[in-house]
Protein 1
Amino acid sequence: MKLLEDRIKKDGIVLPGNILKVNSFLNHQIDVDLLDKLAEDFKKSFDGVDITKIVTIEASGIAVACSVARAFGNVPVLFAKKHKSAALSDDVYYSTVWSHTNSCNYNIVISREYLSSDDKILLVDDFLANGNAMNGLIEIAENAGAKVQGICVAIEKAFQSGGDALREKGIHVESGAIIEKMSYNGDIIFRS
Amino acid sequence: MKLLEDRIKKDGIVLPGNILKVNSFLNHQIDVDLLDKLAEDFKKSFDGVDITKIVTIEASGIAVACSVARAFGNVPVLFAKKHKSAALSDDVYYSTVWSHTNSCNYNIVISREYLSSDDKILLVDDFLANGNAMNGLIEIAENAGAKVQGICVAIEKAFQSGGDALREKGIHVESGAIIEKMSYNGDIIFRS
């Protein structure tokens, strides 16, 4: 999506450690209109696909998911909560996710009440890099018996292999912008 | 807002400790259409008021804030991040907030880049009870020199005194539903 690529070029800051700072429109401050336009693009890519629920992870995924839910006819958003504690109750599905940024494991949990084998879900997030968080959501979906119809992320870092590994598994992955290469004090190159 | 009151009566669950569980449409699963309608109501209450930014706290405030931002002509959303660590960098405004639910202090932080004395802001959250989180956002706004034009929350627990204390300070507070009284296994009574 050119609008998003242009915004990343204009306002994104590449930090050491392959970090792309997009706090001015996605991760801290949010441009809701940009997300709505991105969501309309996702809807076109999944035209005719039955979606009963949008599933994401707190916190930065929520804004993207709400825009996507609206574009898909106001289906419910369901966001996985992050738990540092290993103590989990029996009424949740969970998965353990490795955080590359913070070098620690954390659990993501979804209440069993809100996800079932009747659900056909679209997984949504702000970033897709190594795919750890996304694979955690997929594990939860499998445990719930829900069908993953596809994945939509705002920004994919293709030089980390999460997105392409998911595509190789046969999952339909759409990204608003796919970054092939970026470097500290250098250019950001998008997949064409 | 009758639609929200009806939804709370239908799907809200009162738990011991004055906890209202609304995980099915607000805190875990989100009904985006309901939030959009609530946001339109808030817009009517603040008709003609100049708003440059919607400010909220992660995670449950983000969905409400995105709907409100849309209703106010797509002004940016800015969400405060929660930090358990006391170590904070110089480039943030912060406030220390007491969490009644978790019986601990946490810091909320907003980057100095995104809030200034030019801003006229609307504070948004999912819940208003004792007002601790809201007072934290107000402290941050004061430190940034931003003007607080008002507060919009989905659900206010009036039996805790946060909302009325803010009104007594002269702040325009709008709540989608104001609960006067609720009890475990009992009725939920709204302010008329």
Protein 2
Amino acid sequence: MAAERPTIAMIAREVGVSVPTVSKVLNGRTDVAPATRARVEEVLARHQYRKPTARSLTRSGRLIELVIHEADTIWAMELIKGVERVAGPARIGVVLSELGGSHRPRQEWIDDVMARRPLGVVFVLSELDGRQREQLASRGIPYVVVDTQGEIPRGVHTVGSNNWNGGLIATRHLIALGHRRIGVVAGPRDILCSRARVDGYRSAHDEAGIQLDPAIARWGNFRSEAGYEHGGALLDLPERPTAIFAGSDLQALGVVRAAQERGLRIPEDLSLVGYDNLPITEWLNPPLTTVTQPLQEMAGLATRLVLELAQGETPSSTHVELGTELVVRGSTGPVPAA
Amino acid sequence: MAAERPTIAMIAREVGVSVPTVSKVLNGRTDVAPATRARVEEVLARHQYRKPTARSLTRSGRLIELVIHEADTIWAMELIKGVERVAGPARIGVVLSELGGSHRPRQEWIDDVMARRPLGVVFVLSELDGRQREQLASRGIPYVVVDTQGEIPRGVHTVGSNNWNGGLIATRHLIALGHRRIGVVAGPRDILCSRARVDGYRSAHDEAGIQLDPAIARWGNFRSEAGYEHGGALLDLPERPTAIFAGSDLQALGVVRAAQERGLRIPEDLSLVGYDNLPITEWLNPPLTTVTQPLQEMAGLATRLVLELAQGETPSSTHVELGTELVVRGSTGPVPAA
């Protein structure tokens, strides 16, 4: 026998409260006693209650939520623009939340989102725990994750870019220039995209038959300070690398500084590849060779997916990965003569 | 006899519609015939109807609007962070709108804002026309302008920084280093803040008794391309400047490129001062001497002012200007020997 699709009335009956009380909890209203609220949430989750998602996209005052783990970089700006360029013309307001460096929103944030009743949520480098996912699902609020930082739970829609390919093409470029001792200052070890880039770096070595030296591979945090610190450590090694793949453009800036302080010229003494192709990198001194991620397109695609889900449509694919490309500028050159 | 304070009932009677119809127009609902709506708007404006502004700041689902003329730069990111850091802890959602480079929102945007009923609006380098101002006022939606780009209408609250002082201290620093031929690539001529910076530059010359040469003063647009183009033109003059005040950090990047292409070293052959102290400038090559505007504080203060106004409070001052400071780094040095 097929399970009956749960209704608000069924939930109310089981908890022993009125239908309006269940509605209040679903709409994030604060005028429900915490104990009652917890019981309602528990029964909603047990029955996997789902509010119908198909809504009119034409009513006014509509919102979409954009959640960014940290709005500290130009990188975040590109993603914000990508969401704005889709939401703006559709007259959908974009509510921006910054998690202050955390990768998971606090429960109050979820409560506020439920009260705002947005069409959906775009998460950037951030994710929900199981309970938070269930809460959004029961309210019929769809979401899409851009550039996943961890394992992707079943059924969650994601938009990413091919980070493995990015690491591969950056490293192949350096190998083609004759470099054989290529250091890497990667992003954080606990973020999937930085691990994928390092694996691409490894594969490029494998296919060229070059032995990897773990002594010249380091994990950073995407910031200039990390590039400065780890880049400096690599350049102080007795047998220093002739090229460094910096894992992010901001880290590359730190490596430039470390090289300068040691009297090393770029690209004559050290070749350097960044990652992200931030708008400013073509104006750097020297202009930076880097890997382009289509950040605006990724965010725009995630926004369109959320709007499709909000209209009750089923997107053709659950996980989409956009391509990465190498942009060759002035920071890479032939390996220096020994 | 004092004029009677207009009520919704009075407005409805005068237009010849029902009270709910006037309410719908006030709340940005779209289910009112355009002709009726126009008549209601006209009578609301004529009577200067004002919805009471004092609202609870404690109900959930509350929003504040942030309007940025162009989210193209790191500069915008700093302002967004300033708003987030005040709104986030207060659990107020920030709706971000980008005007795509325009300095005035379209009417549809105003309609959507009225439907969203935010606590208030923070405008950055953007402003409203008289009709739009009246529409927000009649809905009891207060607003504050950050870094005004034009003349400030009476009664509009603003938060800025002391741009005149910024131009003054940047130029004084160069004069103290012995420079007498100091070029300027300013921001756009039609934006008040860039004119104030140029006036500070002039005053520093006046107080040092140095004659200004209009041939080495140019208006740009705050972007790297403008710094490259106008900086290059200044450096190609028969009697080129020994220092350039670049009006923005992004323009300074363009001047660096122009100098490099002409074989000029910074600061040995050319001293350079930027404006904004973007986070990336300390990592540039050379690190940039620049003027700090407290962008995050300005945006945070504007947000607090909006929240005060939303609670019916009267802020102690209508126009607030925060201080600017010089940050001396590696791009400025003594005037080269003739």
